[in-house]
Amino acid sequence: MTPNATGADAVIDAVTAVLLIVGALMSLGAAIGLLRFPDLMSRMHAATKPQVLGLFLLLAAIGLQMREWWVWPILAVAWIFQLLTVPVSAHMVGRAGYRTKHLHPELLSIDELEAVVLRAAGQRAAEKAQEAASEVPRTGSTRDGGSVRDGGNARDARDSGGAGANGGPSA
Questions:
Q1: What integer pLDDT is reported at residue 154 of this predicted model?
Q2: C-alpha–C-alpha distance, residues 171 and 154, integer Å
Q3: Following DSSP, what letter does each residue of 34-98 receive, concatenated?
Q4: Is the predicted pLDDT of residue 101 greater than 60, yes or no?
Q5: Cα separation of 90 and 44, whole Å?
Q6: Cα separation of 81 and 77, whole Å?
Q7: Is residue 20 scored above 90 in pLDDT?
């Protein structure tokens, strides 16, 4: 812009400057929170909340400074993409961190996920116990002389004339 801009240009430049400074401070706050907060859940919160607002303010400053109508839809798409992806990724990181015990439970005020995880772990343990009980090897033999464990393949080996697995003589 011109150095002696007055009127609407000066107001737009001032608003742009304020938006850029506040947006940069929000992004800086998110970065400091990532470095300084004690556990995964706090860091995840610091990375998502101010980052989305900081990006919105920066994009608004860019849109104001460009002073073209065609830039606003592009900036809106960028911001909407952030609004849709950041909460989902934060949710997935939080669940993964919870399940791998990368958190400080004493810092949680309410642990609503504990009952769900314990119930799922109990169901998984019951399913594994059922599978283990059904896979217990039975002793005895089949009608053709092969054992239950090898699925009756002993007869197949006898019928093939002592041939090995590849059809040649067995050693």
A1: 47
A2: 16
A3: HHH-SSHHHHHHHHHHHHHHHHHHHHHHHHHHH--TTHHHHHHHHHHHHHHHHHHHHHHHHHHHH
A4: yes
A5: 6
A6: 6
A7: yes
Distance CA(64)–CA(34), nearest Å, equals 30
CA distance 52 to 13: 23
Q: Which tens digit of pLDDT belongs to each residue from 25-40? A: 999 999 999 899 888 8
Closest CA relative to residue 76, chosen from 53, 59, 93: 59
Give the predicted TM-score (pTM) of the model.
0.59
Q: Which of 121, 93, 98, 123 is nearest to 108 (CA)?
A: 98
Does the pLDDT at position 48 exceed 80?
A: yes
**b/e per residue, 129-145, with b = 16+ CB within 10 A?**
eeeeeeeeeeeeeeeee
